[in-house]
Write a structure and sequence with these properties.
Elements lengths: L8 H8 L3 E5 L6 H9 L3 E5 L6 E5 L11 E2 L4 E6 L2 H9 L2 H14 L2 E7 L3 H5 L9 H15 L1 E6 L4 H18 L1
Parallel strand pairs: 1-2, 5-6, 6-7
Antiparallel strand pairs: 1-3, 3-4
Helix pairs in contact: 1-7, 2-7, 3-4
């Protein structure tokens, strides 16, 4: 059963600012992202997430019309890769586990994102990563998996990654609160 509430637009804006980012306890080398959250006053906490690195929650706020807490773990999941080399490793050395992760996420979470710091589709095609993985195979695998598992692929600069993650989470939360 899905609970339905009506929220005023001004309260939705205030609630979005109260979003709490969930950071997987296994996420590594994300100091720049945490520093971004802290510098912007964005609340975050570590939590063992089932299949991805980031999601969010919203705490109960009766004053703003939200009579219960809301977890978005089944609504949005973000998997972050620090660079193309890390992703190439996942596509080769840990392929089975990586693909199983997406398979599981596909059935658990509505909106999935693979956020890659640095790089681009052109960098993949040009082999600008450290791996023996053939550029055409790398490219085709990502295109295939994107369709098979239903995730979006976003390339962002490292320094913009925290901001990008927040934007994805806030947009999803806004959409859900407006329903």
């Amino acid at each position: 059963m899905k609970a339905t509430i009506q929220l005023k637009d001004c309260n939705i804006k205030k609630l979005i600012k109260q979003l709490v980012v969930l950071v997987d306890t296994r996420e590594q080398k994300n100091e720049h992202i945490i520093q971004y959250f802290d510098s912007k006053g964005i609340k975050w906490r570590n939590k063992a997430l089932k299949t991805f690195d980031y999601s969010c929650e919203l705490h109960k706020n009766e004053e703003l019309g939200l009579p219960f807490a809301v977890s978005l773990e089944n609504e949005i999941g973000i998997e972050r890769k620090a660079h193309l080399t890390e992703l190439a490793w996942n596509v080769t050395a840990t392929r089975t586990a990586f693909e199983e992760k997406w398979q599981k996420a596909k059935f658990m979470t509505k909106d999935l994102y693979l956020v890659i710091e640095g790089g681009s589709w052109a960098d993949i095609k040009d082999g600008k990563y450290r791996s023996e993985l053939n550029p055409k195979s790398f490219y085709n695998t990502l295109i295939s998996w994107r369709h098979k598992y239903g995730f979006r692929i976003d390339f962002v600069k490292k320094e913009n990654c925290g901001e990008h993650i927040i934007k994805l989470l806030q947009d999803k939360l806004k959409k859900l609160l407006q329903e």
